[in-house]
Amino acid sequence: MALLLVIDDDRSIIESFRILFEGNHTVIGAYNGPEALQELSKHKVDLIFLDYRLPGQDGLEVLKTILSKDPDAYVIIITGYGNFETIIQSISLGAYDYIEKPLDAEKVRITITRALESKKMSSYVKHIKDMEIENYSLSHIIGKSEKMQEVFKTVGRLVNNDVPVLITGESGTGKELIAKAIHYNSARKNDPFIAVTCSGLTETLLNNELFGHEAQAFTGADSQKKGKFEAAGDGTIFLDEIGDMPISTQSTLLRVLQEREFTRLGSTQTIRLKARIIAATNKNLLDEVRKNRFRQDLYYRVNVVSIDLPPLRERKEDIPLLVDYFIKKNNKKMKKSISGISDSANKTLVDYDWPGNVRELENVLTNVCIHLQDNYIHTLSIPSFGMQENEEADLYDDFIRTILQIHGMEKNLLKNMTRCLQERLIKKVAQMTKGNKSEMAKILGISRVTLQKKLRELSCDT
């Protein structure tokens, strides 16, 4: 049920709205501008119906006043039939729609339904936009290391300097996060941030993705399609993995960046490029230039300012901060109350080299938080399968971790596990040597006499 404010000096109009929407919407009335502003100060109104002609003040002046106080207000103008000048003026000032007198009940219902749906969608989009701005505030980039402090300084300088940026770094270091931080903290934050992955697409597909096409531009092009450059408007285009862009597309992109304009495929009409360009790559573009896989002139176009993101293994002092951040993030997302992590568990995470960088760390901690049974992360909570193995990984630690997970609360654990391990090891060596006791003793590093004694103690049949 919505709250409707009808502003009209004709009491019968207000009463008609009350009768028409009784049981569906609540209708309050005002007979002039001052009364309307008083009602708006007391109530959170969903829709406003405003008569163009009011005593002492015309409706357009009231419209201006309402929108100056609440730019998101949905105002529908009530006007005389065929008064097109009024309609054009009111819409240009920010009115959502208009209806003509004499009022048609069905048209009024349709207008209200459409306006409420539009308002709901607009509120949702605004909420998403506000969340994006919040999620990519500079406070969400974590790091106290010297290398990250340099990154922060550069990002801070770029927020208010509208120049092309090249972000480099290994996969998982957070290149898109930095690009979004620049966008959502700049004057462009209310315009779109559009990411395009330049790898894995053919020249034709990538050109179509970036620049769009006209209807019938090629077989199957049934309708016009805007490209990402056009859709971005005054926002930001993020060209991810630009080092994988086909050479022919690089030439087209260079021309677009030089001329600041482009055309859709199948069109001769030029479209002005208004968006900012931020590019990213995990490759060394200078090496790619030397190997003739990346245009030198394009390199200098996109690399006006560069940000090099260090791999996580080169800023290990940031890992405890990132761990704390991801625990809080997962608490909120999963509705959990994980209070922290033990020193030994933190050390396990710090000692690991994280070839997948911050993305891998986040994935491991998400896994841990999903499966955690209590409210504290211990070493045993960290899944070894969730982290890529280092070449020098300690297999004994993995073995002991598994044993403790299964038998950690049993008594006489050392005695029982020593016997079990000896028995299984001797049986496996017996299988390898086909029961040859001399070979078995040599592999195990014990004498045949000791081997025979252990076989009797463990009741092993070889």
Give an overview in words.
The structure is a single chain. The chain has helices at 11-20, 33-42, 59-69, 84-93, 105-135, 146-159, 175-184, 203-211, 228-231, 247-259, 285-290, 296-302, 319-334, 343-351, 357-371, 395-407, 413-433, 437-444, 448-458; strands at 3-7, 26-30, 47-51, 75-80, 97-101, 165-168, 193-197, 212-213, 225-226, 236-240, 261-263, 270-272, 276-281, 305-308, 340-341, 376-377. With 462 residues, the protein is α/β, with parallel strands linked by helices. The chain has four domains: 3-131, Response regulator (Rossmann fold, 3-Layer(aba) Sandwich); 137-310, Rossmann fold (3-Layer(aba) Sandwich); 313-407, Helicase, Ruva Protein, domain 3; 413-458, Orthogonal Bundle (Arc Repressor Mutant, subunit A). Strand 1, helix 1 (11-20) and strand 2 form a beta-alpha-beta unit. The chain starts with a strand and ends with a helix.
